[in-house]
Amino acid sequence: MSVVALQDTFLEAYSKIPKTEQKRIYKLIDALRLDMNNKGLNLERMREALDPNVYSVRLSHSYRVILVRPEDENVFLLVWIDHHDKAYRWIKGKRFVPNKETRTLQMWDMENVNADGVVTGEPAPAGQNLFAHVTDEQLYQLGVIREFIPIVRKIKTLDDFEIYKPVFPNDTCEYLSFIAQGDSPEEVLQVMRELERESDAADKKDFTVSDAITSPVSSRTIMVAAKDRKLNRQLQEVLEQPLERWRIFLHPRQKSVVEKNYRGPVRVLGGAGTGKTVIAMHRARYLLQHFLQNGERVLFTTFTRTLAQNLKQILSTMLSPHEMERVDVIHIDALAKRIAEKGNACKVTIVSGYKLNALWKEAMQKYDWDADKYTFLRAEYDRVIQYNGIETWQEYMSVPRIGRRTSVSRSMRKRIWNTVSYVVEKKKEHGWFEHTDVLREARKWLEANPSQSLFQYRAAIIDEAQDMHQEGFRLLRALIPEAENDLFIVGDAHQRIYSRQVVLGRCGIHVRGRRSLRLNVNYRTTEQIRQKAVEVIRKMEFDDLDGGVDHGNDISLFSGTVPVIRSFRNSTAEKEFIVSRIRELLESGVKRNEIAILVPTNDGLEIVMKHLYKHELPAEKLSANMNPDRPRIQCGTMHNSKGLEFRIVFIAEANEDNLPNTGVLNMKKNEPDELEAYLNEQRSLLYVAMTRAREQIYITSYGPLTALLSDPSGN
Ligand SMILES: Nc1ncnc2c1ncn2[C@@H]1O[C@H](COP(=O)(O)OP(=O)(O)OP(=O)(O)O)[C@@H](O)[C@H]1O
């Protein structure tokens, strides 16, 4: 007898039961395989269940495992674990269908449908149907079983689709999601056919549960336990790390992006949680295994140190030690510093904060500026001069000041230039560099020494590209020779929280035609969280990192509870609420390190952490050196959460005067460009923080709540 498990449901159930019960599963599987008639197993047919092949078996005094045992087949399919009554309720309306079209074993939930009475209702009039352009036959080929076709015909809008989603099995739901997002049925069927080509059971007349289990397509949904007494390593791995199965199975769409041979740079866009980083990591592996020669290396870079560290750790579990030696995971500023120091044989000292402010104040005094022009001058330097890599007065005189609304006369420009030159000279005298200076110096060195191949990089993968400075991309272009599969860039302008818009074409990176891709399906966040997060940024426009507009719209595969948003009288009341919710979550089986508390400011972070300690809740700050597996509540600023994800997220201190920060608003109030840029960054920051949550989000404040949640204009 072979024993397999239905991933999505079984893993969910498994993650909710106590550790002692989890350990019993392995023994139970062995026992089932050896002798299913073993009386001790207490195998019982569940007559109340809709599916005639459903059985239950005793795991312990309290828990039962639900399984499917198709007649005349030598297989047990584990689907659920729960207390007796709850398990019965769960299984009651489920039907397990080996679907010849999708080559998978599907789970249909008739209970949901019948409760809503949707099966017997009238279909939506033609033209008002989200899937009107999909024929019945195409729906069938997409895996919709015949009796469910009338249900699809009732779906008028994307919102309707949300309500109906739990009815569909995951694979068909995913295919329908693609169509709902604008893909043609033919395109989606093409993806399916590619899979069928891989399937050895494609021509069989009857499609059985055993066929579904052995079909390669099922590798995403079914885990197989090995035939010998030791459990298959894969099953054990997935059971122990249920949230990371994407490391093993990619969706066919993702797979095709990862495995293509591209004639030049590729750009992949997609909203939060659409799998961009997952794809980037798989791409690194694929490049090494299929496209690169021995000795050629891959650079994997991103914007922040914490994220680079996190990516390195995950990559090291996906790649062999030998492959890992051929990949450098490093954030862009560290890379630039490395090149500049190696190339110029000099020590780079980064200057920022008060030293730099003091230098600017000195220059402003010398050139007789009013103190309130500080923001204007710094922005002119960062947004126009540094952004465009300008180094001479002639260049500055002729550069279009795109995105700067305050006009400046020629004489004013000259005064600005004199002030800037003073700062630049002084920085040189002290041997000080800002990060952008280092990027530029590194690039200039590479351009002047084209034959120098410092690190044997043949290709680069760039994550979180929206926050990369133009100088960063120019540096990468100078570092990686133009060739097939040279640059793989993933990013999302919705999440830009550090830099200004980049135009890849202006950095010598030319993305053409089919090398520009967009992912639309969110695998991380529930639709409820996604929608709430999108509300915060809905009035903004987003670029495609190359001078165009990103009109993309995403959809989440999962449904969940609505975000909880609450404001409290004072900070203590807010923190007490958070602590009590955390205690409840821990009691319900959520692990400490699955919970994150994010706050707008560093001061707020200290307060939150003190509060957790006071209540004996171990906590840890998000940082490049932290170990995310330690059983601690993860705390960090919203900025630090970039690129990460957690099961439950609290955004605390989301106060009116924190988000956006009133002090910064005041400083920028006379600079409309800067003010708008800052507000947009703050909206994106909130979007980023909210979309870190997989299952549930709590947003709290003391005093009035941030206006960004109620009024996306931020006014
Ligand atoms: N093929 C897949 N199967 C299952 N889960 C997946 C798959 N692809 C992605 N995911 C899940 O979605 C999560 C989000 O993926 P990822 O971090 O790559 O998204 P992203 O687009 O880079 O997000 P962000 O831009 O918000 O940081 C992953 O952690 C993973 O849990």
Distance between the termini: 66 Å
What is the class of the largest domain in the CATH system? Alpha Beta
Q: What bound compounds does this protein have?
A: adenosine-5'-triphosphate
Radius of gyration: 28 Å
Query: What CATH architecture label of the largest domain applies?
Result: 3-Layer(aba) Sandwich
Trace the largest sheet across and list its strands: 2-3-4-5-1-8
Structural class: alpha/beta
Assembly state of the chains shown: single chain
Count of separate DSSP helical elements:
28
Strand content: 15-25%
- How many domains? The number is 5
Can you give the mean pLDDT? 85
Percent helix, as a range, is 40-55%
Query: What is the count of β-strands?
Result: 24
What's the story with the biggest beta sheet? 6 strands, mixed
Binding site for ATP: 270-277
Protein name: DNA 3'-5' helicase
Catalytic activity: ATP + H2O = ADP + phosphate + H(+); Couples ATP hydrolysis with the unwinding of duplex DNA by translocating in the 3'-5' direction
EC number: 5.6.2.4
Describe what this molecule looks like in 3D.
The protein has 715 residues and is α/β, with parallel strands linked by helices. It folds into 5 domains: 2-94 and 207-247, YaeB-like fold; 104-198, no CATH class; 255-344 and 456-527, Rossmann fold (3-Layer(aba) Sandwich), CATH 3.40.50; 352-433; 563-710, Rossmann fold, CATH 3.40.50. A 6-stranded mixed beta sheet has the order 2-3-4-5-1-8. It has a 6-stranded parallel beta sheet with strand order 11-10-14-15-9-16, with helices on both faces. Strands 19-24-23-20-22-21 form a 6-stranded parallel beta sheet, with helices on one face. β14, α22 (470-479) and β15 (487-491) form a beta-alpha-beta unit. α17 packs across α20, α21 runs parallel beside α22 (470-479) and α23 packs antiparallel against α27. The longest helix has 21 residues, at 410-430. The termini are far apart. Adenosine-5'-triphosphate binds at residues 243, 245-246, 250-251, 254, 270, 272-278, 492, 495, 523-524, 643, 645, 691. Adenosine-5'-triphosphate binds next to α13 and β17. It holds the Pfam family UvrD-helicase. It is an enzyme of class 5 (isomerase).
